[in-house]
Amino acid sequence: MKGQNMYLAFGSEVIYDDASFLIEDNDKVGVVGVNGAGKTTLFKIILKEESLDAGKITVNNKKIGYLPQEINFDYKEKNVLDYLYSGRPIEKLEKELNVVYEKLSNASELEQNKLLRQAEKIQSELDSLNQYTAEDELLSLIENMKIDSELLEMKVGDLSGGQKSKIAFARLLFSNSDILLLDEPTNHLDAKTKDFVINYLKNYHGMVLVISHDIDFLNEVVTKTMFINKVTHKIKVYKGNYKEFKRLYANEMIEKELRIKEQEREIKKLEEVVKRAEGASRTNHNLKRLGQSRKKMLEKKLDELEVREEKYKTVTMKVEPKEVSGKIPLEVKHLTFHYPGKSDLYHNLSFQMARGEKFLIVGENGVGKSTLLKLIVGKLKPIKGEIDYGYHATIAYYAQELEILDEDKTILENVDNPNYSDNELRNFLGNFLFSNNDVFKKVKVLSPGEKARVALCKILIQRTNIIILDEPTNHFDPETQAIIGENFKNYTGTLIMVSHNPSFVEQIGVTRMLVLPEGKIVEYKKELLHYYYYLNTELI
User: pLDDT band for position 58 (50/70/90)?
Assistant: First the structure.
């Protein structure tokens, strides 16, 4: 894949300016850069969903497979197994081949030659898709990704967020594409599946481009790192994983800073000579000539002066309840729930929370972690049992798939709150990196990371004493994750959370864990979380 002299701008915002890159066929490449640098835009250009203003990207008719951050299925009524198998168009090609053979029996000699060439082409495509071993390959993939038989029978439209990600990823891996484009691929993956995916991608016979905030994943998988520089709008490919890129980049920045300081010293000296010459008497011809010469040199040096890298703003936030809740802010009593036609997710589940407690819900994907949070916030109704809120309890909910946002409304409209003026709301949004006219953008045009910031801002300005978090770190870079974790660590209200991110869980200071589907409550222990997390047992 080759990018040549790429230029792209959205209005006055330049994304790429004379940017070029080269990636070899079997390279595993991490695509990095600050928010807004143009990482996801690059994928859209490769997929021909976006066009460059100038320049080009050459892919050479390679088959491209794409895993977006936000998973949407076209055929929601299709069962999971059929959806996975459709990752390779084998059935479609077999039907086309049968039609060709049917035509052959009544065709003229000239038509037969044409049809035979067509049949040969279709058969060649089928051979490239491993027509006769594809089912075995899919079954092996299903087994390694721990996709159970009950899940295979479900309709894709009924899958949870975590299940959607796993199934979409499995289908992509099965697709046998020449190039894989992966945008935040480890969101929702449990530890054992993630380990399998890492090994699969490392040995993948094709090109892989991956955008990820998961540093461990990048360091394991990628052999090269593509850096999209938001300051210069250029692209540079470094050899090595993310860790090696950071080391090389840090050295480059030190060398660049030394060059800039030397350039600035030379410019200062030239400016002093020019200033003296301009102030000299008309009869001092030598100094005047020297001044004119140095002025030309100064103009050239100013043109050549390198630009320092910007230090980008980070999210700033403070989480503080408006009022104190009672000692027992939340109690779940004898809860039973199942979806229509399905078995119980929980039966006679009971627990209560103490004020100020940090509570983690754990369990395999699909056991009902997100469903329990939706029951607690009233988005679903239990079959039996009660959910009681205590004295002065107030609640805010951060949803895994960001469904608390209205995509057709602006950022400002989404965080609208009668307790604050527009100016106060805009100040809050500024802390979440939305300033000036940004606040009037429709949410539907935002990236997943930007939507996550809007959703987080929306729940925090409510200043509730209970906060429900469903996978809160999925769309955030490591630095933002650390800021969020530190704030929730100091939160004096009650926190209920689902998270696959052990370091984040440890940072905020979880006190107890609810294990689903058993409904068992255990005291939080770091060793226990990690032991079960990495063994991929019931605490995944």
Answer: very high
The residue written with tokens 């490769």 in the block is: 46
Sign of the alpha-carbon torsion through 292, 293, 296, 301: negative
Q: Are 364 and 538 in contact (CB under 8 A)?
A: yes
Please check whether residue 141 is in contact with residue 170, taking contact to mean a CB–CB distance below 8 angstroms. yes
Cβ partners under 8 Å of residue 292, min gap 6:
277
One fold for both 2-245 and 330-535? yes
Helix (H) or strand (E) holding 516: none
- Rounded CA gap, 69 and 230, in Å? 21
Amino acid identity at 466: I
- How distant, in Å, are the alpha carbons of 36, 60, 159, 470 from that of 174? 31, 22, 19, 29
Task: Name the CA dihedral angle for 38, 41, 43, 45, rounded to a multiple of 10 degrees.
Answer: -120
Torsion-angle region of 336 (φ positive above 0: left; ψ -120 to 50: alpha; else: beta):
beta
Please state the rounded mean pLDDT for residues 161-182: 87
pLDDT at 56: 93
Q: Is the pLDDT score of 538 beyond 50?
A: no
Task: Please provide residue 393's backbone torsions phi and psi, each rounded to the nearest 5 degrees.
Answer: -75, 130
Nearest partner of 184 among 87, 38, 41, 40, judged by Cα: 40
Report the distance separating Cα 338 and Cα 345, nearest Å: 5
Question: How far is the C-alpha of 132 from the C-alpha of 7, rounded, in Å?
Answer: 45
**3-class DSSP string for 63-85:** CEEEECCCCCCCCCCCEHHHHHH
Q: In the chain, where are the structural domains located?
A: 2-245, 249-304, 330-535
Q: Under DSSP, is residue 184 helix (H, G, I), strand (E, B) or coil?
A: coil
- List the Cα angle 453/455/461 in 5-degree steps: 95
Give the whole-number percent of the chain exceeding pLDDT 90.
22
| Domain 2-245 of CATH type 3.40.50.300 | yes
pTM: 0.61
Q: What would the 3-class secondary structure string for 475-513 be?
A: CCCHHHHHHHHHHHHCCCCEEEEECCCHHHHHHHCCCEE
Question: What kind of fold does domain 330-535 have according to CATH?
Answer: Rossmann fold (3.40.50)
Mean pLDDT of the chain: 84
